[in-house]
Structure formats: structure tokens, C-alpha cells
Amino acid sequence: LEDMPLVVHDLKEVGLTASDAWEIWQQRFDYVDASKRPQGIEFETYIREKLHLLKQRQVEGKVKSATGFLLKAIKQNYANPEFAEEEKKRQSREKVKTNHLTERRRHLFEEQKNEIQTNRDKELHQLCERIAKETPTLLEQVAADLFKENSLLKKACQPGKALLESYQEKPMLRVMVDQYLMDHYPDRFRAIRTRYDSQLVALASKPTAEEQASV
Length: 215
What we know:
- Helix content is 75%, strand content 0%.
- By secondary structure, the protein is an all-alpha fold.
- Helix 1 (6-13) packs antiparallel against helix 2, helix 1 runs parallel beside helix 3 (43-59) and helix 3 crosses helix 4 (66-76).
């Protein structure tokens, strides 16, 4: 029963015998009169259209035998323009829903990505600051190189104040020192980058809750 095609199940639900339902499923469009066979439509959709037509006619009180009407409707391809209109509306709703989920997934992805990158940058800076504290001579060397390239940067540092304090207080100096350290000593930062790169890769391949529910 678990392997029963949905079409067969739906046909049986409205009263068709198992043999009739399976015959229709196995023959598919060969079951339909050759001169009446539709083009450009999936068989499952074709059956849903006829089931929809049956329900309409039952509501209107025009059906004496549900199974008899349905078999003829399938074989002779009774027209059902209302279904086509409803199908367009359904597809339109599905498209809107899909676009909404796609946009929601993009926003969620960006939020989580930004959080990972923020945590990564914070940890990278913490390591840079630790290096600056533990090796003041290296900080002085880095600052000297930076001051050669940017004299205004040196002027921004207050005279008489320890270089470490200026590094901690001046955002521009802090950013440039951090970047210098990461560019010239990449091995010291590789473990942090690798860990967060793995998180970003995992995030990119992670399905949303909606996608998991649809599996």
C-alpha cells in the first residue's frame, strides 16, 4: 500500500475497483481514446482534472454513477475549463510561496553568515591584540612600517602615549595593524580562518526547515 501510486489511491477513493484503477495507471494515456488524448500535460494532472470535474458535477447533481462518469471522463477526455483556471491560480500561489521561501532563506542565510563572519573577525582581532601585548617589539616594528607608508597615521597617535594604548584606542591604527599581522603572519591565523570557513561551507549547504519538512 505504501508503494501504491497516488493516482491509483485517488481513483480507488472515489469508488473505482482496484483492477480499474491499476489498469488506468498502467495504460496511462493509452487508456484515453486516441482522438481525445491531450498534449503537454502530465498524466497525474490529467487524472486530477477528471476527479475535479467529477466533484463539480456531483455538486451540481448531474452524476448518477460516480465511477461510470469518471471512467468516461478519463477515456473521452471531458473538458474542464474551470480546472485549468484553478490550476493557474494554484501555480501562481505556489510561485509566490516559493519566492517567499527563497527570499526568507536568503535573509536567514545572510544573517547567519554575518554572525559567523562577525565572530570570526572578533576572534582574529583578539589574537592580534594578544600578539601586540605579548610582543611589543613586533608591534613597534609593524607600526614603524605603517607610519612610513602613512604619515598621517603617526600624527593621529598622541605623543607620550604607549603604542599599545594608541592601538587599542584608535580604530584606524587597530585595523591597519591587524591587517598587517594577518597578511605577514598568516600561519598564526590559519586555524581560526579554517574553523570559520568550515562553518560558512556548512551553512551554505544546510537546508531550511521548510525544505526539510518537504522531504
